[in-house]
Amino acid sequence: MKSQVIIDISYLKIMGTGHGFTSSSIRFNLSEEDGKNLHEVWPGGSRILVDLIPGEGDEASGAAFYVKRDGNPRISSVEFENFCIDGLHFCEDGSGNPNPENTYTNGKTGIYVDTANDSFRINGMGLVYLEHGVTVYHADALSIHDNFIAECGSCIELRGWGQASKVTDNLLGAGYKGYTIFAQNFGGLLIASNNVFPRGMSSVHFDGVARSSITGNRFHSFYPGMLVFERNCSENLISSNHFYRSCEPWAPLKNYGNGLDDQFGLIFIRGNDNSVIANHFSEIVDIENLRPTGVRPVIIHLVSGHGNYIAVNHIVAGTEAAQPENAESCFSTQVEAMLSTERSETIAFVAVQVEGEAVNNTILDSGTDAQVMVDKKTNIFRALPEPEM
Amino acid sequence: MKSQVIIDISYLKIMGTGHGFTSSSIRFNLSEEDGKNLHEVWPGGSRILVDLIPGEGDEASGAAFYVKRDGNPRISSVEFENFCIDGLHFCEDGSGNPNPENTYTNGKTGIYVDTANDSFRINGMGLVYLEHGVTVYHADALSIHDNFIAECGSCIELRGWGQASKVTDNLLGAGYKGYTIFAQNFGGLLIASNNVFPRGMSSVHFDGVARSSITGNRFHSFYPGMLVFERNCSENLISSNHFYRSCEPWAPLKNYGNGLDDQFGLIFIRGNDNSVIANHFSEIVDIENLRPTGVRPVIIHLVSGHGNYIAVNHIVAGTEAAQPENAESCFSTQVEAMLSTERSETIAFVAVQVEGEAVNNTILDSGTDAQVMVDKKTNIFRALPEPEM
Amino acid sequence: MKSQVIIDISYLKIMGTGHGFTSSSIRFNLSEEDGKNLHEVWPGGSRILVDLIPGEGDEASGAAFYVKRDGNPRISSVEFENFCIDGLHFCEDGSGNPNPENTYTNGKTGIYVDTANDSFRINGMGLVYLEHGVTVYHADALSIHDNFIAECGSCIELRGWGQASKVTDNLLGAGYKGYTIFAQNFGGLLIASNNVFPRGMSSVHFDGVARSSITGNRFHSFYPGMLVFERNCSENLISSNHFYRSCEPWAPLKNYGNGLDDQFGLIFIRGNDNSVIANHFSEIVDIENLRPTGVRPVIIHLVSGHGNYIAVNHIVAGTEAAQPENAESCFSTQVEAMLSTERSETIAFVAVQVEGEAVNNTILDSGTDAQVMVDKKTNIFRALPEPEM
To answer: Are the Cβ atoms of A342 and C143 closer than 8 angstroms?
Structure first.
């Protein structure tokens, strides 16, 4: 498409015949030789090729689908289903990235909803190579379900404020610069059963979010800061999630990261009365890759707030096992890294770090006495039992 | 539709091109001025306008879709997908409700399945302004998935008996008189990843249900009695759910409720061997709104039964923060209420109340000694640790 | 179909108008009298009748849909949606089964993916009476979501190796010989919100699987060995699942089983650093049905490995209540068995059995001192508190 589709009516459904996701990232990092023998490039079918030229500093102008309507009722029941929005290429971003296709920057957005909305659905879509996948302001009863949104700068951004929505059962993975799932001033958001893979700057980032749930997700990241709660996020539930942090195994992207060090925490919390219960954490990183050098990596970092409840989380930390020699194929490299648990050696870690500003929190059965950094005078702590001598 | 659709054959799929949900509740409570400027009313597309006249005392006669077939095999594989069933209006109910559109009463049902059935699917539907959304007798392997069923008297009722079904990933919200999810004599029901909003009389109501799961849901209610287990519900799992109870913030419905007081419990259990593990509870209510006056609200109320296991639940109780002056818009009012956690002040509460009839239950790490009312001679109790002095 | 559909192109969607699942198992076990009066047999619509003759020892030849393509990129974005693949009949298997329709053997497969693949989707399908439902080698970002795959020898087999996929929100149930969900050398698999019913040899079987999640599922089985981790499965999360094991109540299949005895464990683990948190177990079996005679059935069996974390699991064990006289109808028999909790009597059981090879594991709040068999010198154990005297 050379121009934007503008939607200003309710009860509209835009539907394709296939989500059409294919990895552009793998394609654009193939050797010249391999690149010549590809079966298909820009395949047809229900694939929107986004060939817009976004206006400078005008994010909305780069949106393939732009939704806006004021007045009553709020625009309702717009559905996007089962087609592909493909941003085609990333561009130079001034960072000196030798391959512009790895910048995650092109000013394009797949779906941009600008005004308060109700009961939208985004289902079975494929979004790829967009700087922003889905951006929705002022959502109510939004459902983003069973999509494949990956190799985008950011995948899902719920901005402004909103309530009572769900982001469920998606395959997601942002670029190293962006958000995988971002929500702002949101109440009652359910983030469940998603499989979130690298390399997002974060897996979930909440800014002023309350009374929301992050349950039953599988998160994999190459950096610290997988889950970030900033600016007073309160009364949220983080339960039954699998957090796996490893190091970038793929040659073309080894030089990139989100800039956070290992003291930041795999999860970082500012806020009150949150629950972190029954999660699994695997921090898998070689000691020489820890930053700053010699640090014990922090898993749960409680920076400020009271009344948080952190219980029965299981934390594993170990070295990466030896990498395969030939790390050219992204797929086999990642699988190999993921399965090589046997050669891993335990490393020291901080299970929970509670800063001085944080008081009246409860930490139970999530680390030994040596693994939990907390002022026991101002917080409640029960250590994991230690072996009998 | 002026007359009912009767279905008596298997392998039928009824499919639309959009779930079409829009809030009638908001529309019918607009000022006259605002009501004049609406963009659309009764929009077209795949919307069934249910204009039946239900027979007195004949619930089935008010069903838009009525399914009945006896004999073998049970009627199978009927699918409803992606259209809207709209009951249009509620009626006078004799309660003196000044706006009949707020009574949740009109004798209409969206889908009514009267005989034993197998492998039905209800997906991507929108149901609104029906006294009963979906009523299914004798379900086996039923899937109710990814629908928007709200502003109905009751949303989902699984009656008679049934087994091995799922209610997953829906947006749901009943009226103050009805059930959001109701199940009777059911085994093996999975209720997962739903986002259930007010104002149902309850969020989940089980009557004689066994070996079922309520996991990973987000529940929001304006009254006590969010989850009710009556008549021996046993061996059920309630895990990783977020329960948020606040008070009605929207002017047109402030006078309605489910009649239960704050001693009833946010969850109310009669039955044996249930598991309540790793849930978050937020009870947010101003002290002057508690009933009876001066009571400490009860969160988990174990009324009768043995062998129940209640562990690592996190309970938060506080005051509502100040309401916005202008509470006319339902959306902004609710979002404001949901996000205003910072000004909240802690209130006293009963974390778990175990009645004398209930013995041999186990309560761990879900409340302090002062917050749990239990006979420690007949039940097992480990209090949350308290701060060191 | 008399011949196979071969797929060797990407971006293909094969779509029907109904999942069409109906129980063949019930039909083929009706009395002759009842069999005469059936409403329909082999109903039409979007139903593929698989009438292939598989080649001896050539599994792929029995596949209704066979997918294979080498080279770059991997074959991507093939979707199967909302139709039925029906294997028609099972055959003699040499076991002397009096009814060949109960052998779960016919050499047929529904969907067979033979080469490395990316972003496939299988949604809303019905698969029945196939020896193998879905077999996928070398999957990446596969989604198997919201299907009904039952009365198949095995339902879902992820073979070879793979990563970052999801099996979510399905209704599943294999035969007594096969796997319900099987995965091999897989990393980052999310198995969530499935309702898995009998009679699979196992509900989930992992062979060398790491960093994967099994969360929020409802599992029902008629045999021990519901969840099996073989050959070093590590850093997996098993959380918020409901495990219900009962005994076969339906006459035609009472003589079949998976051959495992009650010492095997409902869950059987070889591997390191796994998490088993916040699950419910109901082991419901009459004492005379336990094998070997007089044994206490084992619930969680930790056979080898270190660093496993088993916490806040609730285990219930009791007798089956009396069976109804007339056990001819599969549906009513199962519902009756499932709901009859009131007459059940407690039986002795082993909550967790930790073998001598397994060291440095942690077991918390999942059984009393008498119920957990563990060497406390080499593992960490906190018993459930016992009643005060």
So the answer is: no
